[in-house]
Amino acid sequence: MEQLHTADEVQFRARTKSFVRRSRGLAQNLSRVLDQHGATYLVPVARADSATTIAPDTKIDWDQQFGRRAPLVVEVGSGNGEQIVAAAAAHPEQNYLSFEVWHPGVAKMISRAASAGVTNLRIVEADAAQALPLLLGPDSVSEVWTFFPDPWRKKRHHKRRLVDGEFAGAVATILAPEGCWRLATDWDDYAWQMRDTIEAEPNLVNPHRGARPDPLDPEPTRGGFAPRFPGRLLTRFEEKGLEAGRTVHDLTAIKPARKEQA
């Protein structure tokens, strides 16, 4: 008997993903961490057709999840949580939400958070490109972080890169007026693509337009890059890129304030 699929399921299956799903196998210590602390940090979501897509009718009450209302910072691709856990510990007045698909990384993030006594962090184990517009309402997020997403180095794989026009539009929608999208990459042509993408999105502004030109840029006088975000940790991942001779580019996009009606 032929199996029928809804339009939403077909859409999720056909969408080009920006990641490769890695093994869900866990060491015993990480399994114990999930057993002990998973319920505190992991947001339960109904799944669609895979372990990383969520059902299109999923709704989350974030005030209830965090037990309060506070400015929300969202990090897409948190890895093992080094950045977001440190930020949550340093800024208890803010709520932090991570989207991550690497299952061992999620467990490591929970271990970090529990060890640090962090209570203002929640984690969604799902593909952010699909989940963001479903789980977060318009104007609901103060900042979005996209630090060192997979560069998909080969040209034929560039279509898999996370930061594209569609994702920029989703970020622009969920950001509150004057909210900020912070990005960083150590892959040159991805930096140019990020710059082009945020400057092409009509609901975002690059406050560093024209700044910090790079002679390796195909448009060497164009610029558009931000100073390093002081809140971004120097992780071992970034150190490896620097040791390999790569240059880190930071970028910032701002959602403009609404114009007052005359």
Automatic annotation (TrEMBL):
Binding site for substrate: K154, D186, T235, R236, F237, E238
Short name of any one Pfam family annotated for the protein: Methyltransf_4
Main EC class the enzyme belongs to: transferase
Annotated catalysed reactions: guanosine(46) in tRNA + S-adenosyl-L-methionine = N(7)-methylguanosine(46) in tRNA + S-adenosyl-L-homocysteine
Binding-site positions, S-adenosyl-L-methionine: E75, E100, D127, D150
Top-rank lineage group of the source organism: Bacteria
InterPro entries: SAM-dependent_MTases_sf, tRNA_(Gua-N-7)_MeTrfase_Trmb, tRNA_methyltr_TrmB_bact
Record flagged with keyword Transferase: yes
Record pathway: tRNA modification; N(7)-methylguanine-tRNA biosynthesis
GO cellular component terms given for this protein: tRNA methyltransferase complex
Single GO MF annotation: tRNA (guanine(46)-N7)-methyltransferase activity
EC number: 2.1.1.33
Disordered: annotated segments: 204-229
The entry's keywords: Methyltransferase, S-adenosyl-L-methionine, Transferase, tRNA processing
Similarity remark: Belongs to the class I-like SAM-binding methyltransferase superfamily. TrmB family.
Role played: Catalyzes the formation of N(7)-methylguanine at position 46 (m7G46) in tRNA.
Alphabetized PANTHER family for the sequence: 3-DEOXY-D-MANNO-OCTULOSONIC-ACID TRANSFERASE/TRNA GUANINE-N 7 - -METHYLTRANSFERASE, PENTACOTRIPEPTIDE-REPEAT REGION OF PRORP DOMAIN-CONTAINING PROTEIN
The protein, known as: tRNA (guanine-N(7)-)-methyltransferase
Organism: Scrofimicrobium appendicitidis
